[in-house]
Write a sequence for this structure.
């Protein structure tokens, strides 16, 4: 059987499409164009694979992390990604049978879906189950916990070691070699045979393969070891056992050229274990109880202000005690469940933002819940945190988009973009995303977008967002300037974004220009065809 016959490109496309929703670079318009001509594109991809497929370079963007350091974010070209996904899909079912079973509760991340042709490669997230195992172990008297993770896990995966592991798993040799060649090709610019792209389903799965020897070694030596990607926990009964476990883990990771992250490594014991795992829920429960008690007093005061005394059976009156109205208070409290939830969340948020750098876990919890409630209490602080926590820009912008066309948000975002704190391309891309929620662009926003577009030193992911935003204005003078940029650009994705942006241009001159652009590439032709079709 030749390589092409082993690959299910239709399944791979379905998985790539779903996986792309969490990409480091916002590019949904590219997938819409590709899907519109899916049959044609997959046919061409099959022909390329039959002739010997070679992948293109990755589309890279640096993503900020806490402490203002960076991690590499990479996105392959769509057809490269489909090919790579299809390769890993071939080996995944057999490999999944050979790594530690899900039922053993050791590996909680990226477990292959039990449905053979599931368009989602993995089962739903098992993060909650991962945290629950710590609680269960603590309840079972394992009151010492090792917490650690691996320094730059995906960046330090050795491709030669990974290839040997695929062979050890008895994976199809042709498929294994092809996976290796893809990963090696993506590193050709650096000429370093180490590192795989982070944030892609196939590489997530390869990460489980890479740590298989460590997983099994730790279990063979009797440690209650478990992990979620590279977040590792080891439950122990004593502190000496915990230290031995950590020593063993470090030694085994070194065999794979990996190391634990010192700043994120700790040994917790007794009550500190519960505080570590349940800090958020314990604090939320505490605040909710405070809100309830305050409401109880308020309700009781309302009741007693109306009837402060009750008549006694044999004459006279007596002041009402709380015990006399407790059932009535509880009934009224039950009616205020939604108010309690909102007030508790608000107080938790206020508690969270006291710190200059709030916990990311707490901040995400607050902003995600406040987004559901469309509560603007966090608006000012969220805008401030764009400067202090650039790595949370996607979470912050997702929250801010609940308040479209908000003058305060627009003003603060533009001022930030023009400031010296606008350092990270990834963050700038996300800040521009807010403007897509606005009906009309303002003069200072348009001026800024042009400075981005005309500066070829800016990251293309940022320039593309700016081009697409300007296209939405429908103003002929801006559309003509975008049209004139087309021949200056050499990047296919930038050219495609110009084609898409001209969708709002007058039909006659737009189609005339489109016809003059045909033949530059198959993908540009597809973009033109798609734009004409949806603009009728």
């Amino acid at each position: 059987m030749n390589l092409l016959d082993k690959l299910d490109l239709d399944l791979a496309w379905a998985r790539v499409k779903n996986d792309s929703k969490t990409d480091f670079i916002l590019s949904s318009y590219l997938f819409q164009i590709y899907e519109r001509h899916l049959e044609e594109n997959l046919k061409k991809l099959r022909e390329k694979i039959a002739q010997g497929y070679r992948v293109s370079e990755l589309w890279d963007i640096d993503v900020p992390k806490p402490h203002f350091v960076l991690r590499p974010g990479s996105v392959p070209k769509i057809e490269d990604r489909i090919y790579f996904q299809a390769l890993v899909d071939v080996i995944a079912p057999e490999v999944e049978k050979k790594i530690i079973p899900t039922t053993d509760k050791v590996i909680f991340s990226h477990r292959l879906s039990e449905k053979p042709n599931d368009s989602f490669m993995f089962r739903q997230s098992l993060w909650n189950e991962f945290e629950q195992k710590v609680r269960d172990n603590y309840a079972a008297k394992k009151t010492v916990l090792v917490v650690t993770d691996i320094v730059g896990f995906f960046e330090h995966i050795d491709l030669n070691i990974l290839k040997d592991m695929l062979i050890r798993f008895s994976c199809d040799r042709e498929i294994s070699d092809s996976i290796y060649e893809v990963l090696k090709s993506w590193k050709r610019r650096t000429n370093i045979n180490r590192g795989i792209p982070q944030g892609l389903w196939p590489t997530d799965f390869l990460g489980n393969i890479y740590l298989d020897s460590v997983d099994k070694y730790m279990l063979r030596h009797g440690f209650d070891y478990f992990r979620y990607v590279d977040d590792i926990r080891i439950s122990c009964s004593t502190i000496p056992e915990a230290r031995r476990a950590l020593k063993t883990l470090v030694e085994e990771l070194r065999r794979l050229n990996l190391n634990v992250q010192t700043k994120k490594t700790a040994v917790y014991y007794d009550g500190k274990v519960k505080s570590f795992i349940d800090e958020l829920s314990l604090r939320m429960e505490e605040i909710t109880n405070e809100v309830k008690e305050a409401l109880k007093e308020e309700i009781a005061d309302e009741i007693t202000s109306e009837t402060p005394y009750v008549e006694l059976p044999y004459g006279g009156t007596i002041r009402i005690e709380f015990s006399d109205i407790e059932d009535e208070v509880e009934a009224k409290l039950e009616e205020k469940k939604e108010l309690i939830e909102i007030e508790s969340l608000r107080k938790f948020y206020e508690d969270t933002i006291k710190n200059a750098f709030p916990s990311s876990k707490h901040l995400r919890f607050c902003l995600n819940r406040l987004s559901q409630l469309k509560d603007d209490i966090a608006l000012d602080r969220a805008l401030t945190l764009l400067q202090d926590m650039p790595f949370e820009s996607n979470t912050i912008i997702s929250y801010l988009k609940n308040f479209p066309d908000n003058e305060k948000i627009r003003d603060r975002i533009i001022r930030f973009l023009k400031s010296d704190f606008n350092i990270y391309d990834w963050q700038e891309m996300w800040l521009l995303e807010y403007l897509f929620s606005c009906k009309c662009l303002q003069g200072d926003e348009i001026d800024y977008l042009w400075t981005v577009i005309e500066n070829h030193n800016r990251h293309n992911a940022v320039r593309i967002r700016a081009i697409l935003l300007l296209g939405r204005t429908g103003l002929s003078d801006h559309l003509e300037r975008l049209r004139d940029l087309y021949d200056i650009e050499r990047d296919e994705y930038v050219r495609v974004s110009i084609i898409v942006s001209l969708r709002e241009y007058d039909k006659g001159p737009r189609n005339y220009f489109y016809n003059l652009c045909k033949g530059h590439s198959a993908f540009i032709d597809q973009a033109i065809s798609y734009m004409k079709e949806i603009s009728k």
About this structure: The longest helix spans residues 271-306.
